[in-house]
Amino acid sequence: MGGFFKIGLFFYATVLGLSHVFKLKNPSPLVFPIGLVVLFYSLSLTQNYFEHVYEGLKIGPFTLHFPFQIVIPALLLMIAFLRNRKNVQSITVENTAENS
């Protein structure tokens, strides 16, 4: 039951996100095409339950979890740090110019 709600929430977020990207006021036209993509992708991903478990335990952590939980957040943190450092330097330069 929890999986059903999780997939439903992800599906809803995908439809709303794509409607925002494509600047659609009504996201309803995207529901059926995205549902078909999810259906065909889920049917073609694995042939049986054991293959599904193998991919989830052996392949998934390296191809999905590591990049999305470590690599991408670390890159975003470095980018945010570099951007913030530039803003702090420009503010200090402006403040020293105003004080002199």
Identify the notable features of this structure and list them briefly.
single chain; 100 residues; mainly alpha; 3 helices
Verbal overview:
The model has no long low-confidence stretch (mean pLDDT 86). The chain contains 3 helices and no strands. The protein is mainly α and 100 residues long. It has helices at residues 2-21, 31-45, 49-99. 86% of the residues lie in helices and 0% in strands. The chain starts with a helix and ends with a helix.
First-last Cα distance: 66 Å
Percent helix, as a range, is: over 70%
Counting helices, strands and paired strands, the structural category is: mainly alpha
- In N-to-C order, the SSE pattern is HHH
Computed CA radius of gyration, to the nearest angstrom: 22 Å
Total helices: the number is 3
The pLDDT mean sits at 86
Strand content: under 5%
Strand count, sense and barrel status of the largest sheet are: none
Write the layout of secondary structure elements.
Elements: H1 2-21, H2 31-45, H3 49-99
Summary, kept brief:
The protein has 100 residues and is mainly α. It contains 3 helices and no strands.
